[in-house]
Amino acid sequence: MTITKVLKKNKLMAIVALIYLAIFVFMPDKAAEAMGNSVYYLIEMVQVLPIIFLLTVVIEALVPKEMITRRLGAKSGFLGNILSLILGSISAGPIYAAFPISKMLLTKGASVSNVVIILSSWAVIKLPMLANEAKFLGVSFMGVRWVLTVIAILIMAWITEKLVSKKDMLITSTVVTDKQIVINHDYCIGCGICVKMLPEVYEMIDQKAHVKAGGIKSGDDAMILKTADKCPVNAIVAKEKGGAVA
Amino acid sequence: MDVFTLSFWGISLALTGVSLAKSKKKTFEAMKKSRGMMGNMLGEIIAIIFMIGLVLTFIPPESIKSVLGSENTFISSIIAAIAGSITLIPAFVAFPLVGSFVNVGASIIPAVAFLTTLTMVGIVTFPLEKKEFGFKFALVRNLLSFVAALVIAMAMGVIL
Questions:
Q1: Predicted ipTM > 0.90
Q2: Is the confidence at residue B105, as pLDDT, over 70?
């Protein structure tokens, strides 16, 4: 990878590094303080991310897709919402830790509304946090805020489901190698040829082909180009990352 | 590490053991996949963490007191909600801080608005959320959470 490619992939990191550099030059004490403040969160990350990694592995390896679709999918109804609420509430770690798990569940069939519920309850409802809140602000304060928050999360989930389709969420493809696959869902007719050719990379969700989360490996490159070629409506476009169509 | 996180280590390690016992091949494949997915996020997460450090330095947690204490509840609620969206103060710092303030008689409406956006709305984590779930989803979820925080705060002002 060239330097520009590395920078493009880590845009946020580059921006943050630049800010730190500027502060180090002009306000060295502030920069040191900011570094120090970050340490607590770095430790938290090191403690939590391995768990998240193992959990995504377990979900992928042990839980069949049909089960997730049935329990958390579009037809799972109110029970699915409650299950999502429980899943989010018994979680550990900050909200960014919820992203990999939610993404994995989404690609395995969970509905948009249930992803909203998992993310939100993951952020707000946590047992140690509730105990802390009750201690400093009183039990009734904590209780009322909890009830109102649960109601708000359910309403938010319902509204988001109406406004955002699963298509909007899965169109961003996963990039693992230098190749990037973009599937144009306006063209995709759901014929399933790509899934048959390369089941490790493609899957069908709501009758449209999707790239599986983390599905592209370097060895797949040649086969991906073949699937792009075989797609009857040319909905699959394989690109060099950030570059021209291959 | 607190008991809660520790028990999660136990649970996830046990489940991984079950998965390995069931099918080694499937588990290793899943690991490869997760590694790809999380490897993509790792750089952004580290960037986010250093952003949090910056925000905490230039907007220290104590500065929220001046927001919560202002005379006009409506305006201070909105400012508190915005402050909560930007900062990411750890909960065990935020609760005593807000508690000490509410206990001496400050209005709870801005306090609730702040506590709720603090965890539900994330401006700092927005780039990552956008990348993983699309711009529209991230925008809708964060905006709805912001509004919800204000509504929850007002409802609590009425109830308590």
A1: no
A2: yes
